[in-house]
Amino acid sequence: MPIKTKRLLVATGNQGKLREIKAILTDYEVLGAKEMGLPFDVEETGVNFSENAFIKANALRALTDCAVLADDSGLCVDVLGGAPGIYSARYAGENATDEDNVEKLLTALQDTPDENRTARFVSSVCLITEDGDVLYGEGLCEGLILREPKGNGGFGYDPVFYSLDFNESFGILTPEQKNAVSHRKRALEDLKKQLI
After folding, report:
1. Per the CB 3.0–4.6 Å rule, which of 4, 59, 109, 116 could disulfide with 42?
2. DSSP 94-130
3. How many CB atoms lie within 10 A of CB 81?
4. Confidence grade of residue 51 (pLDDT, cut at 50, 70, 90)
5. Can you tell me the distance from the alpha carbon of 78 to that of 141, in angstroms, rounded to the nearest whole number?
6. Lowest mean pLDDT among 84-88, 110-114, 136-140, 190-194
7. Model confidence at 36, in pLDDT bands (50, 70, 90)?
């Protein structure tokens, strides 16, 4: 069930996510809610990534007739029982910076042996079409948590996430390299299969 136009509004205030989505969905005109002058701030009350993605997409869809896309994603660390998970952006508190979140994560893992620092980035994307059809895409990216940040590329936990696809920190990879294997890329590719 394709969308009628090539325009997608993205329900996010995260400029890093928006840049990545624009770089991946090059067949579409991708615009952030703020670029369209739409006020967008929604409480993420879901219990998993897909519920939060729907909550965000549905809130933006109420403000426009365009197709809308939302991503909810985060880092899941095995030894922490999947934390920070859906709380990744606010792991160290509501107004935490990326550096605060990384510091809390590294402190929580300081006594964890290297072989037990397995983790994955998870992304769930939700698209609501102009007709109100709801589609989902899911993506994973496997890796390990480093003992200290490496590189200053990307955003969020990227500098401490060692990608098993590239055998390098996401913080070192170019945007093009990261976008080729990222959880968000895989979720969007999963979604695109349903748009053909």
Report:
1. 59
2. TT--HHHHHHHHHHHTTTS-GGG-EEEEEEEEEEE-T
3. 8
4. very high
5. 13
6. 190-194
7. confident
Find the length of the chain: 196
C-alpha 72, offset from chain centre: 5
What is the C-alpha separation between 132 and 147, in angstroms, rounded?
45
Tokens 């390299």 belong to: 177
Q: Please confirm, yes or no, whether 72 is among the known catalytic residues.
A: yes
Record the tokens describing residue 74, joined without a space: 């985060």
Residue with tokens 């480093």: 146
3-state secondary structure 12-73: CCCHHHHHHHHHHCCCCEEEECCCCCCCCCCCCCCCCHHHHHHHHHHHHHCCCCCEEEEEEE
Tokens of 11: 């329900």
Tokens 């365009």: give the residue: 66
Phi and psi at 130, nearest 5°, equal -60, -30
Question: Could you tell me if 45 and 91 are in contact, meaning their C-beta atoms sit under 8 angstroms apart?
Answer: no
Beta partners for residue 138, in sequence order: 124
Nearest to 126 by CA among 34, 191, 45: 191
Asked if residues 105 and 79 have their Cβ atoms less than 8 Å apart, the reply is: no
Position 62, amino acid: A
Active-site entry in 72, 111, 114, 165:
72
**What is the pTM (predicted TM-score) of this model?**
0.91
